[in-house]
Amino acid sequence: MSELKNDLLLQALKGEAVSRPPVWMMRQAGRYLPDYIKLRQKYDFFTRVETPELACEITLQPVDQVGVDAAIIFSDILVIPQAMGMEVQMEEGKGPLLPNVVKTESDIDALITTDTAERLNYVMQALSLTKQELNGRVPLIGFAGAPWTLLCYMVEGKGSKTFDKAKQFCFTQPELAHKLLQKITDVTITYLKAQAKAGANLVQVFDSWSGMLSPADFKIFAQPYLVQIADAVSVDVPVILFPKGSWYALEDLSKTSAAGLGLDWSVTPTLARQLTSNNITLQGNFDPSKLLAPIPQIKKEVKEMIDGFGTRRYVANLGHGILPNVPVDHARAFVDAVKEYGA
Ligand code: CP3
Question: Which helix (DSSP H) or strand (DSSP E) does residue 314 occupy?
């Protein structure tokens, strides 16, 4: 396996001194890139995800075109519900739809938990192909959805402003909810370990909807499962947890085996450092909509963000995924501003 020529991200996760912070963007492989949009016109979403050559090509686009310090494999968090036997449709422009949601104990019992790596073999193939094509240029990030966020989709069946059906399920049938969360956790651990074996240098767990939970409910329905995943997978590769909207959980999560914590833009660098006692690498947290501002303003605010976090134990990123309407040169300005920091 080739040595990494740029391992800033891995250095930052270890807490080592770096010449400048590494930078990548959540959802960097996708909708704002003209070359991605061209592929979208030719192949449907799951064809793009399930064809290793296409997934590899899409993964490399932001590395080649925007200059990020890491590649994140092109896939989706909903491949886990699929591998567990649920039907997932992706309607362009509308988002995901799971027509047969989980409602009862027998629905949970029917979920498949075996042969996860084999069922998701196309992801492993995409990872090893991408690793080969990267040829050590930058680290390769694998990922999965967090159990709570996957429960949201498996019970609600689609995106939601409140995820009240998912929450109702948890609050009225907590034993069933925990049974489901544990099944998702077990499958996710197997999946992330297989990603590490296939070539992922690190992994990120996206808890996109954790901020829907109160601090007390986060401790019940999200945190224990994030901790299980971090403990099991960090034996193989560094793990970044991204509990979006859950700044209240930073202190607890900084004491786990996670190597990094992702932040959204609702928290200041100072508060995040205080809550985590400067003990863990922090990643984030530029408001994705700010990439729509004029380039000089983007550059100025990126500098302020890095001033706030400091260059040590820090990974520059957005506070959530890049938006489809961001001009490519604005994405590039964000990345360049990090690269120019201190220069
Ligand atoms: O980050 C990357 O560049 C890798 C690719 C990636 C995708 N989805 C591709 C995708 C990643 C890391 C994801 C994660 C994901 N998927 C999350 C967690 C991150 C987050 O944004 O909170 C979630 C909640 C999903 C579920 C999902 N997939 C939704 C809600 C949607 C539709 C809305 C949207 O964001 O576009 C998708 C579809 C999807 N996944 C697209 C892409 C590029 C858009 C489909 C298309 O137009 O090509």
Answer: strand 314-318
Evaluate if pTM is beyond 0.85: yes
Domain 8-339 has CATH 3.40.1010.10: no
Residue 36 in contact with ligand 1 by CB distance below 6 A: no
Ligand 1 binding pocket includes 81 (Cβ within 6 Å): no
Q: Examine the residue annotation and report whether 119 is marked as an active-site residue of this protein.
A: no
CB 212 within 8 A of CB 245: yes
Q: How far apart are CA 312 and CA 326, in angstroms?
A: 28
Q: Could you tell which of 76, 97, 150, 263 is best to mutate to test the pocket of ligand 1, judged by most ligand atoms within 8 Å of the CB?
A: 76
Omega prior to 285 cis, within 30 of 0: yes
> Tell me: the pLDDT tens digits for 212-239?
999 999 999 999 999 999 999 999 999 9
Query: Pairing relation of β-strands 140-145 and 95-97?
Result: unpaired
CA 327, distance to chain mean position in Å, is: 22
| Pocket test residue of 24, 25, 26, 27 for ligand 1, highest count of atoms within 8 A of CB | 27
Domain boundaries, the chain: 8-339
